[in-house]
Amino acid sequence: MDAAPQTAEVALLYHPQNQIFAWISTKNEKNATDSLLGYHRALYEHNFRIDFVHPSEFEMNILKNYKVLVIPFPYWLGEKICSKLDQWVEAGGVLIGEAYFAGWNVEQGHHEKIVPGYGLHEVFQTRQGLVEPVIGENTEIELLENLPYLHKGSVVKGSLVRESFFIEGARVLACHSNGQPAVTCAEYGKGKAILIGSYIGLPFHRQKCNQNANLIAGLVEYAMPISRPRVEGNAKVRIDILTGLKNQTMIIVQNLENRSAEITAHLPFKINNKLKEQFSSEILSSIELSAGKGSKISMQLTAKEVKVYC
Fold this sequence. Notes:
Blueprint: E1 3-5, E2 10-13, H1 16-26, H2 30-45, E3 50-53, E4 68-71, H3 79-90, E5 94-97, E6 104-105, E7 110-111, H4 121-124, E8 126-133, E9 139-143, E10 155-158, E11 161-167, E12 171-176, E13 181-188, E14 191-196, H5 201-207, H6 210-223, E15 230-231, E16 237-244, E17 249-255, E18 261-267, E19 285-288, E20 295-301, E21 306-309
Parallel strand pairs: 2-3, 2-4, 4-5, 5-14
Antiparallel strand pairs: 1-16, 6-7, 8-11, 9-10, 9-12, 12-13, 13-14, 15-18, 16-17, 17-21, 18-20, 19-20
């Protein structure tokens, strides 16, 4: 079937120069790489559609295609990118970043006096306060209010640094174990900017801290609800939807875990035809939801099983 996946509304910035800078500044290039991988995996497992964007694409106004941009380990960004970020958030975008956001002034070759750099402290409505190295493997961050996938009081893991903030209008969503602000959210123009005072993609990628994945997905959902498949419960199941030129539909369901699962999932569209699994000929069990809220499907999956319906 000639089909295409749904368009991504969430993007991650991959910045080659930042990768090199992270290697030089931390003596480990994998810190930046593993941060990216952690964020991507967290969003992938929560059924977000994600693109990677490159700095060269900012000149082509690439941000207009996305509702949310996540920048893990965002030390080296530069003036052009930061200017675009300011404009994009003001116009309605959601920006999510981590510690030392744009902390290095690329053009002048020195550390920014105010972090986030390039004036982005006005977008985040917070600025860097005390920064401490993490003693041991992780630091703890506690939620101060409920978020999607996490309750108030839930604890996630930060890594490498514990960055606290001076609040200049932002809302504090979480605090460090010393009580200082750790995660903030600011409204800026029509958009929002979320800042995390540590690196939370790393513990998820390296240590499988699932609460971190829930925080990453929860912050996106909190700031900008994205239409996508939603799986009930805690089963890690990926659902991808492809559509053809004649309104044909293909649904690919993948069990991401090494155990069987019986799942129920909500799809953001109505299933008009009976869909058949391409290897077993099983008919997809679906129910149309009221008020145009899409469809509900259910099925059983063995460990790591993939089913393809069309």
